[in-house]
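Propose amino acids for all 415 sites.
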């Protein structure tokens, strides 16, 4: 079902390109904690083709194993992870061999002119479908990136390839499949009923990339046109990328906040559905070490300046206040406080309400559980995740954590 609010996710691909010497367990833990502190629980991993298959027919297993290591760690931290084979129509993030035939271009436009490019692109998604299962099962696959005609290609030509990629993926993986499109592409692929039927059949959900202050085609009018067609299907959708471009971190942050507010109002006023996720893509232009890496997570410089502003909450937020620790002690009848699913529910009220102009936000970003045992005991926290319930008002901020341990206890109270 489509979402009813802007649930946030991020796009992730750092300068380290998943180099384990840089992407350490500590760095990953810091990044996941940073995301969790902002209520973010969805990560789209940008996995470029040139990293996956530098030589035609030979996959970079070191890269893929480190990618799988990241996916597993993210899932244990409570994150949903989608994979994006991010290939541009005129970009250069493809293997060098892609440009050694056909039209001679090292980009996705050559998929129509060099048979090897199509053959290997299909094989790539079939191979990834078999790799990303079990502990490494992804939430979804997003293929290509904003496909559009460069030399007069037709919608039929694109849709033929989309259908072939999808067939390779779903033959081995149950995760949803989609094409990574921006607003102009969604409008283009749904202009005729015939094309719309094929496009929606390919996409288990529709991805929309949206930069309201950067590209001419990224207008609210085009967004609402796309959403009207999506809702008529109907189809779930998400913002695969939602960005605000600025060379100044503070301007970028404030611009992002304003863009999110304006977009929410436009969609709500038009009566269209809200996205499953809004995956923010913060540009790092203001960070000299991150030139060329648009993403929130440049693992060479963590946390990023622009994203750090969100953490420190400069220029925004609700009522004035500070962190508070709420301690609840249960000394007896513990089973009475646990429901049939194993959850303990607490109802709390913020002491810093809204000031009337901006809303107050209550976060639960740290949970500590202590058991007193009359004897010997050992408890480990195996995993935890934030699972907010936003389908009710007020929202319920829920943290799930899994404990594993053992104890030897004297029933008399003395060991």
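Proposal:
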């Amino acid at each position: 079902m489509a979402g009813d609010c802007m649930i946030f996710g991020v796009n992730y691909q750092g300068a380290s390109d998943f180099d384990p010497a840089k992407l350490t367990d500590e760095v990953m833990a810091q990044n996941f904690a940073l995301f969790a502190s902002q209520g973010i629980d969805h990560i789209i991993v940008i996995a470029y083709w040139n990293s996956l298959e530098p030589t035609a027919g030979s996959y970079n297993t070191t890269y893929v194993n480190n990618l799988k290591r990241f996916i597993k760690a993210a899932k244990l931290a409570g994150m949903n992870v989608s994979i994006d084979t991010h290939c541009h129509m005129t970009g250069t993030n493809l293997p060098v061999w892609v440009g050694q035939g056909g039209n001679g271009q090292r980009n996705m436009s050559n998929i129509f002119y060099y048979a090897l490019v199509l053959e290997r692109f299909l094989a790539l998604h079939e191979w990834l479908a078999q790799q990303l299962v079990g502990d490494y099962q992804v939430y979804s696959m997003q293929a290509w990136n904003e496909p559009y005609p460069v030399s007069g290609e037709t919608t039929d030509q694109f849709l033929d390839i989309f259908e072939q990629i999808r067939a390779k993926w779903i033959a081995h993986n149950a995760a949803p499949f989609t094409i990574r499109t921006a607003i102009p592409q969604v409008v283009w692929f749904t202009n005729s009923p015939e094309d719309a039927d094929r496009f929606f059949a390919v996409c288990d959900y529709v991805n929309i990339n949206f930069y309201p202050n950067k590209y001419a085609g990224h207008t609210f009018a085009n967004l609402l046109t796309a959403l009207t067609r999506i809702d008529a299907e109907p189809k779930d959708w998400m913002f695969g990328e939602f960005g605000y471009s600025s060379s100044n971190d503070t301007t970028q942050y404030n611009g992002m906040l304003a863009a999110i507010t304006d977009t929410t109002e436009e969609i709500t006023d038009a009566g269209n559905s809200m996205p499953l996720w809004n995956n923010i893509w913060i540009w790092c232009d203001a960070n000299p070490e991150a030139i060329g890496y648009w993403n929130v997570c440049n693992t060479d410089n963590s946390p990023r300046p622009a994203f750090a502003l969100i953490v420190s909450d400069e220029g925004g937020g609700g009522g004035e206040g500070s962190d508070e620790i709420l301690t609840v002690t249960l000394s007896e009848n513990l089973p009475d406080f646990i429901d049939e699913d194993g959850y303990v529910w607490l109802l709390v009220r913020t002491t810093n309400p809204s000031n009337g102009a901006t809303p107050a936000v209550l976060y639960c970003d740290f949970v500590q559980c202590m058991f007193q045992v009359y004897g010997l005991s050992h408890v480990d926290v195996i995993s935890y995740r934030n699972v907010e319930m936003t389908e009710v008002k007020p929202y319920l901020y829920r943290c799930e954590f899994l404990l594993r341990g053992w104890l030897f206890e004297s029933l008399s109270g003395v060991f």
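The beta strands are 8-12, 42-46, 80-85, 140-143, 177-179, 206-210, 237-242, 278-280, 375-386, 399-409. The chain has two domains: 8-312, 334-409.
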